[in-house]
């Protein structure tokens, strides 16, 4: 009785801004307002991410910087593009059920490659400890394993998926902490904190109105802070002496 009352109270209180929470093996169905917010909160960053990635490319002084700029740029832009396309299809799906399902998987998969791409400039351009050369490849293996996990177990074990994202986000940081030059470390930590705080909202659909859109904003802020660190400490003219000879 109490549970039914609480659900009715939430429906009355939040109305068009939030639907009821669903079981862990089901997908939450956003309201029209939540759909719009989910699209807008990542669509707004597509153009800035492309322009920012292009800037890093133009600032590159050698092959490794160019490669790292492209990897990072594809990961950053891909995250916002795939997310926006998925949420748009989900909002206007009509008969596109199979397409929506495929893009939902892609939306989850791209997170793994975004994490790997975000580490790439640091692993490629900074002087790190002895494990750095191995981590450059290990992180992509982790992204591939995460992609395979989504393909075979999509939406089945959501808590496991969350743990995978967290482990992949934190594990390479152990190598990053070995940087002889610590410039940018503060921004990396702050950006990581925004991602971690955002996870609270990532799993709060049906509990907090616009939870997923808020999660998107935390992702955008974290990505923005990390982009600033990469631009400022790895690509800005005058910092070339800090880069390792490769």
UniProtKB/TrEMBL annotation:
UniProt key word Amino-acid biosynthesis: no
Subcellular locations according to the entry: Endomembrane system
Membrane topology recorded in Swiss-Prot or TrEMBL: Multi-pass membrane protein
GO CC field: endomembrane system; membrane
InterPro entries xref list: AdipoR/HlyIII-related (IPR004254), Hy-lIII (IPR005744)
Amino acids binding Zn(2+): 87, 212, 216
GO MF annotation, one: pore-forming activity
Signal peptide location: none
Keywords of this entry: Membrane, Metal-binding, Transmembrane, Transmembrane helix, Zinc
Protein name per UniProt: Monocyte to macrophage differentiation factor 2-like
Similarity field: Belongs to the ADIPOR family.
TM ranges: 70-89, 109-125, 137-153, 160-179, 185-202, 214-234
Top-level taxon in the UniProt lineage: Eukaryota
């Amino acid at each position: 009785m109490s549970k039914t009352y609480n659900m009715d109270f939430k429906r009355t209180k939040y109305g068009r801004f939030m639907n009821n929470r669903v079981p862990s093996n089901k997908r939450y169905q956003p309201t029209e307002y939540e759909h719009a917010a989910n699209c807008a909160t990542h669509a707004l960053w597509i153009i800035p991410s492309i322009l920012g990635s292009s800037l890093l490319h133009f600032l590159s002084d050698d092959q490794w910087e160019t490669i790292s700029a492209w990897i990072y740029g594809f990961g950053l832009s891909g995250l916002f593009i795939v997310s926006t396309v998925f949420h748009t299809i989900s909002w206007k799906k009509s008969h596109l059920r199979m397409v929506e399902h495929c893009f939902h998987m892609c939306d989850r998969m791209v997170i793994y490659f975004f994490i790997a791409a975000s580490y790439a400039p640091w692993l490629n351009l900074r002087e790190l400890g002895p494990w750095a050369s191995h981590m450059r490849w290990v992180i992509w293996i982790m992204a591939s394993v995460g992609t395979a996990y989504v393909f075979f177990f999509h939406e089945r074990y959501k808590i496991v998926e969350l743990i995978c994202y967290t482990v992949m986000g934190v594990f390479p940081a152990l190598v990053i902490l070995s940087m002889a030059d610590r410039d940018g470390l503060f921004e990396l930590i702050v950006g990581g904190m925004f991602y971690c705080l955002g996870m609270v909202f990532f799993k709060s659909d049906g509990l907090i109105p616009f939870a997923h859109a808020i999660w998107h904003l935390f992702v955008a802020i974290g990505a923005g802070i990390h982009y600033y660190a990469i631009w400022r400490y790895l690509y800005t003219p005058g910092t070339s002496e800090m880069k390792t000879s490769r």
